Amino acid sequence: MKKPTLQIHLPPKLRLLFPVLMGLFWLVPALVAQTTPAASTLRFGLSNGWKDFPSLTGIGFERARDGFLDLTLQAAEYTGDDNTDMLFHFNDRLRDDASRYQAATSTAPDLASVIKRGFAALGGGSAVFRGDNPVVLQATPGALFSAKQGWGDFTVEFWLYPSEVQDGESVLKWQGGRTSSGAFETQLFQVSFAGSRLVWTLQNLFATTPSAKAVTIQLSGDKTLIPRQWHHHLLRYQASTGLLEYTLDGLTEALTHATPSATEDGQVYGLVTGSQTKGEVVLGDKYNGALDELRMSRDFVDSPQTDRYLTGFATKGTAISRIFDLRFAGSFIETITVRATRAGDTALVYSYRMAETIRYQWNFDGTTDKSLAQAPEEEQDSWTRFEPGDKLFSGLSGRYLQLRIDLLPSGTGKQTPRLTELTVNASPNLPPPSPSGLEVTAGNGTLELRWKPVMQGKVDGYLVFFGTRPGQYLDTKSNQGASPLKLGNVTSVTLSGLANDQIYYVSVATYQATNISVNSRELASRPSRDARKQP
Predict the structure, then answer these.
(1) I need a surface site. Which of 90, 179, 287, 401 has the fewest CB within 10 A?
(2) What are the pLDDT digits (tens) for 246-273?
């Protein structure tokens, strides 16, 4: 079957006629609904993007290799709270969501080159270092890495993708100094590589009292790190017990206590930054690889988010499109095809719904909700599932269309389904052809109309429009009834009871079920006692 295209436009005068057709042609125009282009194919994703899916819950976007955005589950990124001291997502720019650290642009003039969109452990991007492009962060007063800060519980965590794992590469580094008993002690908080393992060094940060000599504590990972893999690293400290623990992907790698005995028994050291510091935190010094989701918290994080995506049915992602106007009642969908990837145990569920009218729900806050469900309680049941590529001819029909995609996570939290492209092939219920060959003969208080029959397609009848002004046909009276007159499958009619010498404008249209054609050409004529035939 040849697919029609939406290239026929109803003029405003026809749209105004619908409410007066005594229920035969019921159509409520959606004045705020957005109208689709005059085409039978709708495309989403790739270069068209996903702007037509404004309702997103638990949905994220990840850049594919072709540079376009795929629809995915939302990444399990942290959000800041009162205990957040530092939070960098690296999605599109170097910005601390906790607003305590600022990138020092004078030391890294090309900061934009550090961000790589589309390559990330979580979210839309990461910070990528090449060994010679470190980033310097400047702590503001009150931040943990500023001067004279007493630390209580804290947690530092990030995702890491090392390219080489070479000794001397530094992921994070802060330097300062303190004075105890008249002696100056250099302080250092550093995360670096040694022996293909990640090493946390806290030099001269712990002491029993501010005036006592400080001690250095170092924790090294047990596992050899494999290059070019994302892993979650975390260091957390519990001030009440002195517990200092390093975890890799949520599992303990190294553990000690900040006490003289390095056990839970004994006096707990305090952690204080000295007054001799610029408050500079250096990221990626001599480091080759990527860094993502850098967070520092003023608490002991018991359950870090080590999954890349949230799991469980309650955290599924849902994308709902705007309502598309297919222009004609009784339109239907032929097929809906997709390009998608379902990794692991993830899944994609597709639904659509169609209706002839839109229901509007006005809210107390002044907003308006639009839906194709007939009633609020039918909202969830109004969706019909389909499998991409299925023939949907015998399914739903209507003037308005809406699409829904549900992205279901796996139980691992490591994978997401990806929707790259979605294509809708619609069959608009195009109106029948308009009549041709209209002729008008004026008589005494009458107008005789004749036209050629429409032979193409199924024709249920004709509508005759007449009025005293061009294009304005509503409610003009005749002995046969008011305009427009609904006739059967005939090709002539004589209008009587008209005023002599009054000019009348007439036109004819074809109707077919709930659809009508564009009007024929308009002719003008005046009834008269001695009227002559007018072409």
Answers:
(1) 179
(2) 999 999 999 999 999 999 887 899 999 9
